[in-house]
Structures are given as structure tokens and as C-alpha cells.
């Protein structure tokens, strides 16, 4: 933890407290958007069409950014990788949205904790970051947590949970691509190309299941698109303001919000396996994040 994270800001509030506040807001709003999307997807509109409109409503947020910064923001030599990233991101979204119609919100929140672990595997394979003992341990524990939730077996197999596992694995791949591209591309360039590519790509699967949307569904999805953008911004503010080791444990609130919102709106009661499995997955991800930071700090200090 840095001194700046402990020292109070100009308004007398320690930066870590502010960061935690942003993280609480980010987790709650993110799970709330999932509830909105599920509400629409459980009606007459298919999850694929929901994904298209969600992406469509991100354009009014991204296009002003492009207009303000000019065409230079779109300058890149990695068009192919941008396309692959958009395809994987959209595929992850489609898996996740279909899963929302089949499994409780709490399970969705718990299984998304797998994404960082999948990212570690793929980074080791494609970015040649290596597989240390701590990564093997975190991966094994994370998989154990996944099995606790999914409980593979003829009687307990949950297809909705499997969709979430697929979404998390694809999102892990997206995280690795973003990490690789961030070496040469700005965040604004990556985000702009994502929005411009994903909207037309999302239209293709939506056309096969298209139904005329009701205006209330459009309103829900517009709200979800706006709030989803806010959740990402709040997450960025949390990581920017507070220290990672103070802010990231709050991410576990996604499981709590998923359980509370799922009960309040969809009368869902998550079982003990979801809580235990989610805690195991989250714990392994947090432990790995902490160990990676310690290892990086020791390496920078010349400690073998």
C-alpha cells in the first residue's frame, strides 16, 4: 500500500476510502445491468438481439469521444487483432446473456471471477509469461471452486453455469489481447474500435432471431448500456484512486448484489454451493493478484 493511498485527500477523505466507494458503486451498478438484461432477455426478445441493442447504445457514449479527439484516435496497425478482440468479446457477451436466462444472478457473479485465472493461463501460453508454482496453485483452486458451483453430474449439471464458464474463458482471452495491444495502442483507441466493430458484428446473430422490440425493452437496454459504461468508469476511478489491495477485495460484493437483486426481483435463492464456490474462486484470484504484485516488486528491487 502506498503512502498516497493512506494520506487524506483535499476533502479529508483517505483515497482508499474513496476508491472503495467507487468500487461499491461499480459492483452494484454492474449487477443491476445484468438484472435489466435478464428482464428483457426473458421476454420476447432473444439474448442475441439484446446483445445487439446493448452494443448499439454504447455508440452515443463512444462517438463523442472519437469526434472530440479526431480520426487520429482510430489510427492503428492492429486492425486484425482489433477484429479478433471484438469477435471474442461479443462471443463472451452472447454466452453470458444466454446464461442469464438459465441460471441465477448470483451464479453469474460468482463464475465471472474465473476470468482472471483464464487470463493467466492464456498469457502464459501466448505472451510467454511462464507458469510459476503460484499460478498453478491459483488455477487449481479456481477450478475447484468452479466445480463446486457447476457440480458436474447427471443430476446437477447446470447448463446456465456452463455458459458463464464459457463467457469467463473468452473474457480471459480478451483481457490478454487488451494487455498485448496496450503496449502500442492507447485505451481510447482500443475502446473506440471495440464499439465500432462489435455493434455491426452483434447484428449478424441477432438477425436470425429478430423480433420487433417493444419500446419498454428499448428503454431498459438503453439504461443498461448507459449504466454499464458508468460501471466501467467507476471501476477505473476506483483503481485510480485507491490501492489495488484495498479496492479489489470489494469486487466480491458482486456475488452479494447478485444474491440480493436476484432474490428481490426474480425470487432466486442461491444455494450454499454458489457461495462457497464463489468464495473459493474469488480467493484464488485475489491471492494470485497479490502474489504477482509481490513478485513484480521483488523483481524490480533485484531480489531473485
Describe the model.
- The protein is an all-alpha fold.
- The protein has one domain (3-134, 155-270).
- The protein contains 14 helices and no strands.
- The protein has helices spanning 3-6, 15-41, 47-56, 59-69, 79-100, 105-111, 115-126, 133-150, 159-181, 187-207, 215-241, 244-247, 253-266, 272-300.
- The two termini are 22 Å apart.
- The mean pLDDT is 82.
Measured between the Cα atoms of the first and last residue, the distance is: 22 Å
Which ranges are low-confidence, i.e. pLDDT below 50, for 5 or more consecutive residues? none
Number of helical segments with 4 or more residues = 14
Mean pLDDT: 82
Strand content: under 5%
Helix-and-strand structural type: mainly alpha
Overall outline? globular
The oligomeric state is single chain
Radius of gyration: 20 Å
Describe the sheet with the most strands.
none
Supply database-style keywords.
single chain, mainly alpha, 75% helix
Précis, in short:
It is built from 14 helices and no strands.
Lay out the secondary structure.
Elements: H1 3-6, H2 15-41, H3 47-56, H4 59-69, H5 79-100, H6 105-111, H7 115-126, H8 133-150, H9 159-181, H10 187-207, H11 215-241, H12 244-247, H13 253-266, H14 272-300
Helix pairs in contact: 2-11, 2-13, 3-5, 3-10, 3-11, 4-10, 5-9, 5-10, 6-13, 6-14, 7-8, 7-9, 8-14
Amino acid at each position: 500500500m502506498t503512502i498516497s493511498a493512506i494520506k487524506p485527500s483535499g476533502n479529508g477523505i483517505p483515497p482508499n476510502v474513496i476508491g472503495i466507494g467507487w468500487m461499491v458503486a461499480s459492483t452494484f451498478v454492474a449487477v443491476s445491468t445484468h438484472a435489466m438484461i435478464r428482464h428483457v432477455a426473458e421476454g420476447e426478445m432473444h439474448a442475441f438481439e439484446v446483445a445487439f441493442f446493448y452494443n448499439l447504445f454504447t455508440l452515443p457514449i463512444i462517438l463523442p469521444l472519437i469526434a472530440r479527439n479526431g480520426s487520429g484516435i482510430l489510427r492503428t496497425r492492429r486492425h486484425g487483432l482489433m477484429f479478433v478482440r471484438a469477435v471474442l468479446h461479443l462471443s463472451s457477451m452472447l454466452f453470458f446473456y444466454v446464461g442469464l436466462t438459465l441460471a441465477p444472478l448470483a451464479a453469474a457473479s460468482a463464475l465471472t471471477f474465473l476470468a482472471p485465472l483464464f487470463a493467466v493461463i492464456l498469457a502464459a501460453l501466448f505472451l510467454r509469461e511462464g507458469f510459476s508454482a503460484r499460478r498453478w496453485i491459483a488455477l487449481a483452486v479456481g477450478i475447484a471452486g468452479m466445480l463446486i458451483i457447476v457440480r458436474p453430474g447427471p443430476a446437477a449439471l447446470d447448463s446456465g453455469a456452463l455458459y458463464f464458464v464459457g463467457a469467463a474463458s473468452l473474457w480471459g482471452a480478451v483481457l490478454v489481447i487488451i494487455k498485448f495491444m496496450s503496449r502500442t495502442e492507447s485505451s481510447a483507441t482500443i475502446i473506440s474500435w471495440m464499439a465500432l466493430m462489435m455493434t455491426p458484428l452483434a447484428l449478424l446473430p441477432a438477425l436470425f432471431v429478430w423480433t420487433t422490440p417493444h419500446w419498454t425493452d428499448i428503454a431498459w437496454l438503453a439504461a443498461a448500456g448507459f449504466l454499464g459504461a458508468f460501471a466501467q468508469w467507476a471501476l477505473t476511478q476506483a483503481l485510480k484512486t485507491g490501492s489495488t489491495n484495498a479496492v479489489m477485495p470489494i469486487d466480491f460484493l458482486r456475488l452479494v448484489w447478485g444474491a440480493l437483486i436476484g432474490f428481490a426481483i426474480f425470487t432466486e435463492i442461491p444455494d450454499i454451493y454458489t457461495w462457497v464456490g464463489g468464495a473459493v474462486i474469488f480467493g484464488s484470484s485475489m491471492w494470485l493478484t497479490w502474489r504477482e504484485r509481490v513478485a513484480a516488486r521483488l523483481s524490480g528491487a533485484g531480489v531473485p
